[in-house]
Design a protein that fits this description.
Structural class: alpha/beta
CATH class of the largest domain: Alpha Beta
Strand order of the largest sheet: 3-4-2-1-7-8-9-10
Number of strands: 16
CATH superfamily of the largest domain: Glycogen Phosphorylase B
Number of helices: 16
CATH architecture of the largest domain: 3-Layer(aba) Sandwich
Helix content: 40-55%
Radius of gyration: 21 Å
Oligomer: single chain
């Protein structure tokens, strides 16, 4: 059997396309230390973005050292991964929280990076930020996880102000903070985060394409629900903050074949919400690579009820596959879906609105075709190559800002 981590790396790496030309690279940055709060074998937005950045930097000839919570692979294509002791959360066992492990700082000092890149920094990222200050090297941080929002989703809203304060301390101690959408950037600005820049995400439009649509995969997604007018698809983790119970009205409608792809600690609760009281939702489990692309292309609409997303990579994949998207009108989703053009934005947690918009799209083939074409056209403008080109410019800017800061301190 193929190594599952190797399969993930192969599936994700193909999205990068051709390496960037040498003249577009930031030549001042040759050694990069990466701190990521989530990494393989967990697959989510943080680990996927970290992996793609690692692969980009490897292909451009950089020397890398990666710090990630245990358990993590020992290496990625020859790059060593420092697996940091971590704890798991009782209500969220997929997530590991790295300990404040001080030997990291000595390992970092010995590596002598030109730049440090933090992915969704919290405990591990705090050490990366402090290490950057001690070594006087630029630190670039991605804001990718809405921890204050998660506090509300998990019934602990009193922790939201504390999380906000911790994140502001970490990010304002960095040279630049990269926000994934304009919506998130505006939110961070309101929270008094400094030195913000916009850094989006890309999608592999060669792999994710409507041309993969097949009768075989349509049948697999329908799962014998022959009376259904069409297929509504969700892809993502089965987690509490995704609010998948909002799809309950779709699950109970026999004219809609609701199918969910993914896995996670909240799967039993999601099954209970969508497969009882007349619900007929079908669960396929985790898919990768071509199988995932085939599944997207076989659906008719994409539904995404999460309200705490900072981006929503699966939305871009669905759009590249020609699917109109129905998403909650909060968070990063609101920045990706153009209401009435590439899909619909509906009020958060509104099961009726999700159901009505899904029925509208499945009943109107002309509207669905128009939105499908618009969604595909939007996705075609979002390449990972362009995303990494922008990242190189931020590395150059962070390096210049750090040099300026060092000169000011010397004066």
């Amino acid at each position: 059997m193929r190594d599952p981590i190797a399969a993930i790396i192969a599936a994700e790496s193909s999205a990068l396309g051709q390496p960037l030309p040498l003249e577009t690279l930031c030549t001042a940055v040759q050694r990069v230390a990466i701190f990521t709060e989530a990494f393989l074998p967990k697959v989510d937005g943080v680990s996927r973005t970290a992996l793609l950045t690692i692969r980009h930097l490897q292909r451009s000839g950089r020397q890398l050292l990666v710090f990630a919570p245990h358990p993590a692979p020992e290496q990625i294509e020859g790059t060593p991964i420092c697996s940091v002791p971590s704890l798991w959360l009782p209500s969220y066992p997929e997530t590991r929280v790295a300990l404040l492990w001080l030997p990291i700082l000595e390992r970092l000092r010995h590596f002598q990076p030109d730049l440090i890149h933090l992915f969704s920094p919290f405990t591990l990222g705090m050490l990366g930020m402090l290490g950057g200050a001690a070594l006087r090297v630029p630190v670039v941080a991605n804001y990718q996880t809405d921890l204050p929002g998660y506090a509300h989703s998990y019934g602990a809203p009193h922790f939201a102000p504390l999380f906000k304060a911790i994140l502001r301390f970490i990010h304002n101690g960095c040279t630049l903070t990269l926000a994934p959408t304009s919506v998130v950037l505006a939110q961070l600005r309101a929270w008094r985060f400094k030195r913000l820049r916009l850094w989006g995400r890309g999608v592999d439009t060669t792999r994710f394409t409507p041309t993969r649509r097949s009768a075989a995969w349509q049948a697999r997604l329908r799962d014998a629900r022959s009376q259904a007018r069409g297929i509504a698809l969700y892809v993502g983790r089965m987690a509490r903050e995704k609010h998948l119970e909002t799809l309950s009205a779709l699950a109970r409608d026999p004219s809609i074949a609701l199918t969910l792809i993914g896995d996670g600690e909240h799967l039993p609760q999601v099954r209970q919400a969508l497969c009882t009281n007349g619900g007929t939702a079908h669960f396929i489990g985790h898919l990768l690579g071509d199988d995932l692309a085939d599944a997207y292309a076989a659906a008719d609409v994409f539904v995404f009820p999460a309200v705490r997303e900072t981006f929503g990579q699966v939305i871009l994949e669905a759009m590249a596959s020609g699917l109109p998207v129905i998403a909650a009108d909060q968070g990063g989703s609101a920045a990706l879906v153009r209401h009435g053009e590439t899909g619909f934005l509906v009020p958060a947690h509104d099961a009726t609105a999700f159901h009505e918009r899904t029925c509208q799209l499945l009943a109107d083939s002309t509207l669905r075709a128009r939105m499908s074409a618009a969604a595909r056209a939007y996705a075609e403008r979002q390449s990972w190559s362009a995303v990494m080109h922008t990242l190189e410019s931020y590395y150059a800017e962070a390096t210049q800002l750090q040099r300026r800061l060092v000169r000011m301190r010397r004066c």
